[in-house]
Structure formats: C-alpha cells, structure tokens
Amino acid sequence: MKLARRLWPGIKYSNMGLYKSRKLSSQRLRGCISTARCTTAYITAALLLDIMHVSGWRPEEMATITGRPAAG
Fold first, then answer.
1. Nearest to 20 by CA among 36, 37, 43
2. Are 1 and 19 within 8 A, CB to CB?
C-alpha cells in the first residue's frame, strides 16, 4: 500500500479498491482456481506489475520504499 499511496494519493487503499480503480484486467490466469487465496495473489501480482509499469520502479527500489528487504 505504501507504493500505491505514493503513486495515487486519494484512491481507496485496498487490493480490490486499487484493482478496480486502476481498471486492471479481470481475466484470470489459466489454472487459477476460484479461491480467495488465488484471487488475492492474482490481484496483488497485477497491482505490482501495474505499479512497476506506471512508476518505472525496479523491485529493489520498491523494496526500499516499503522498508522491506528485496527477495532474492
């Protein structure tokens, strides 16, 4: 959410709120069964990809902004 707040101040900050306000694709990944966990993972991934595309931030920069270590 820190990344989203930095890019889009004033938007409702929930995964689904951001997903809808950004009008991201509702097309599901193949093999993704309709469960809450799968949906949450899909939405989170779509949001992170959108943030990277819009901001130009690399994963390392995103980790620095959020104050969390980059995986890897």
1. 43
2. no
Please tell me the pTM assigned to this model: 0.73
CB 29 within 8 Å of CB 42: yes
Domain assignments of the chain as residue spans, ordered by start: 34-72
Q: How many CB atoms lie within 10 A of CB 39?
A: 16
Q: Which contiguous run of DSSP H or E holds residue 17?
A: helix 15-21
pLDDT digit string, tens, across residues 13-62: 788 888 888 888 766 555 666 777 788 888 888 889 999 999 999 999 99
DSSP E strands, 21-71: none
Residue type, 49: L
